[in-house]
Amino acid sequence: MIAIKKYVLSVLVENHPGVLSKIAGLFSRRGYNIHSLTVGITEDPEISRMTIVSVGDDYMFEQINKQLNKLIEVIKVIDLSDHKAVARELSLVKVSADSNNKVLIMEIAHTFRAKVLDMDEKSMIIEITGSERKISSFIELMRPYGIKESIRTGLTSLQRGNKLEN
Q: What value does the CA radius of gyration of the chain take, rounded to a whole number of Å?
């Protein structure tokens, strides 16, 4: 039986146009889905870090890892799948809110250490950061109030400890 699981890769790449497209194309050509992807410049402006989350089996992961390492623009691929990292996600949630439920919504947000960023007579925008599970739980609690819009950044992650390891 093939075990399907979530893989988290931290990929250090050269920071120039076309690199993201090459990496996304690598997944696409092989029929692998990217569950989430975050990209940002590192402490070195010449290097970007991609956090790529995908779901598949060990064979798929091994193939992706090999193909990524073949790309000239890829500096390093680090497997963060086995909780060797600190990982967070950010979400903005616009929820319906009126004078009857604003206080309750703010109490729930406070419990989740979320921040109310904007409020008017009919809605609130709440920012929440944390694990995927925490954000999903918060969103489920907001559903009964009426979610007007929401966005999630996808996972971003850094390896624990002092040194970069595979």
A: 19
Phi, psi of 114 (to 5 degrees): -95, 165
Given a contact cutoff of 8 angstroms between Cβ atoms, the answer to whether 93 and 138 are in contact is yes
Dihedral angle sign, alpha carbons of residues 11, 68, 70, 13: negative
Assigned architecture for domain 86-156: 2-Layer Sandwich (3.30)
- Please say whether the beta carbons of 56 and 49 come within 8 A: no
User: What is the pairing mode between strands 123-130 and 85-96?
Assistant: antiparallel
Q: Across all residues in the chain, what is the average pLDDT?
A: 91
CA–CA separation, 54 vs 71, rounded Å? 19
Q: Using 50, 70 and 90 to split pLDDT, how confident is the model at 2?
A: confident
Partners of residue 158 on adjacent β-strands: 86
Kindly report the CA angle at 158 between 34 and 20, in degrees rounded to 5?
A: 40
pLDDT digits (tens, 9 = 90+) for 115-153: 999 999 999 999 999 999 999 999 999 999 999 999 999
Which fold does the domain 5-82 belong to in CATH?
A: Alpha-Beta Plaits (3.30.70)
113: amino acid identity, one letter: R
